[in-house]
Amino acid sequence: MATAANQYCFALFYSTTATTVEGTANAQMPDVDNFGFGLGVYAFEDSNWTFAAYGTNSTFAAGRFLSAAQNADGTTTVFGLPANASAQFVVLGWSVSLGSSLTELEAALATGGYGWLGESAVSGPILLGDGVGIPVSDIFGTSSPRIPGFTLGVIPLVPEPSTFALAAVGLVGCFFCRQRKSV
Q1: How many domains does the chain have?
Q2: Which contiguous run of DSSP H or E holds residue 8?
Q3: Which one is predicted more confidently, 69 or 128?
Q4: Per the domain annotation, does 43 fall within a domain?
């Protein structure tokens, strides 16, 4: 998948049995409110979820998932599901600074990469019409069983440099106050 600046990658996952990703049906993003500790749990880490296709926000294929069987009508073929099956869906999104594939994303997360990451809530069961093709418009939306929008959170799991600078200034201030009292 080609990448460019300010581009985001998306991965579509499905499950015919799971209604949660490791126990949660809610959207996931890095826990930036807790000083960046804890990435959350994502579909690529849960064996109940199967990767189906990649997507991008580029103008080339905005809002579409790309697979080996991209259909002319904008649907994406979801392999491994029988005709008239239904499945739950999850979408994982990340900035290209973390890579352009799941393999690159996992490597970046393991080595402390910097970028944006998030995962949608789990959809309700969505019927796949002919059993394989699913238009993106059938996955996203505000009404059940569709997936509402989701937010990406920033990583890495370390405080920003400004946090380190503020801490250093505080320590220096404490040192000078202590020295002044000693004199």
Answers
A1: 1
A2: strand 8-15
A3: 128
A4: yes
